[in-house]
Amino acid sequence: MPQITILAIDNCLASGVTGLMDVFNIANQIWQLTQKVETSLFSWRLVSTTGQPVRSSVGLPLAVHGRLSAAHDADVILIPAIHYQTDAQLLTQTTTVCQACGDWLWRHHQQAVMLAACCTSTFVLAETALLNQKQATTSWWLGHLFQERYPQVTLCLDELITEDQGVLCAGAIAAHLDMALRLVGLFAGRYLALLTAKTMLIDANRTSQAPYMILQNLLNHRDDLVFQVQAYMQESLPRPLSIQEIAAHLQINQRTLVRRFQQATGESPIAYLQKLRVDTAKQLLETTDLSFELIVERVGYTDTSTFRRLFKRQTQLSPGEYRKRFSIGGQPEMNT
């Protein structure tokens, strides 16, 4: 019987704790029905660093089963997402958690206990160096902060779930459900995971955060020059645009422009411009009935096929699939 230990942390997301339990509980019920047994497949316990209840980010108190030592027979240790309002607050909370249980996490990892973190709690694993030289993912809007602080981690931001040497990471907030399903599949097989997903109306086929990403995270910097570059790109979006033109417009050296832009956003200007065009196309697909050909023109491309390939590479969906999934209004027929 797989024993799951969930580490309860003050200011954690309540759903990040209870949602995990719900998945394992439903998996148990399906297991009992299909196998015609009364015993459960998964068991779980909630622990805190002090053994005392913790308060979730919405003020809901979460009772626990005991201290960290209660996880002596754990097969998996799960860390739910931590709520935050500023990057500084997130890093402060991360440091506090690491001081309280970093050694505990390392000790269990060395004993081959699987570790799993979701959303912001991936910072806890990274801060303890448990992710060094490993692949990981995190909340898509925190990618730049994560990469800047933890350069020894191979960040795969598009991925919804990563698994490397016994450490699992999940992307933004609701990905804890996908992570729980992954664990069901690892311990009990994909069929039970699929039945659990269908029962709970969870999309078991999503594997990427890419369709959900927006550019807001690339605006979280303090470089006025880069803001000017980004603004000029936005204004010039309906037409072809080169780095040479941007540099000439702002009267700066091209090499300086590229270096400053990379430092501020973690992206090259060309990569950002491509993401800006795709992001604008996504918004038009969501909110208008414009044909894809007209959308391509509005974002400054002349070759529909080239932009379609770029769109699918960045979002993992065709334009038609994207509109069908995310359209705010109707879902018009579309030649994509």
Task: Give an account of the 3D structure.
The protein is an alpha/beta fold. The chain folds into two domains: 3-211, Class I glutamine amidotransferase (GATase) domain (Rossmann fold); 215-326, Homeodomain-like (Arc Repressor Mutant, subunit A, Orthogonal Bundle). 48% of the residues lie in helices and 10% in strands. It has 13 helices and ten strands. It has helices at 14-35, 87-110, 122-127, 143-149, 175-188, 190-200, 224-235, 243-250, 254-265, 269-287, 292-298, 304-315, 319-326, and strands at 3-7, 43-47, 54-55, 61-62, 76-79, 114-118, 135-136, 154-155, 161-164, 167-170. Strands 2-1-5-6-10-9 form a six-stranded mixed β-sheet, with helices on both faces. Helix 2 (87-110) links the parallel strand 5 (76-79) and strand 6. Helix 1 packs parallel to helix 5, helix 1 packs across helix 6 (190-200) and helix 10 packs across helix 12 (304-315). The N and C termini lie far apart (48 Å).
